[in-house]
Amino acid sequence: MPDEKITWPRPGERIDPDKEAAAAAWLKARYEKGAYIRELAKQTGRSYGFVHRLLREAGVPFRPRGSAGRRRPGSDGADKGTTS
Fold this sequence. Notes:
40% of the residues lie in helices and 0% in strands. It has a domain at 18-61. By secondary structure, the chain is mostly helical. α1 crosses α3 and α2 (37-44) packs across α3 (48-57). The N and C termini lie far apart (56 Å). The protein contains 3 helices and no strands. The relative contact order is 0.14.
């Protein structure tokens, strides 16, 4: 079901409740593969809150904010706030 083509309503329109489960599975699969909520919101034309709600209702464990996956390689923060 996650690879099924989802027809996203235009912004401001409600999603059909019958299709909401398929939409949640589609979002969940992409989030679990590393997509960010903001990316998913932009791809679907839906709000951050909408995407977050569907993921939460689908039982997705959220990554911590500012998780290590978003840092540039080699930027471990070791040089911040330190004096020698």
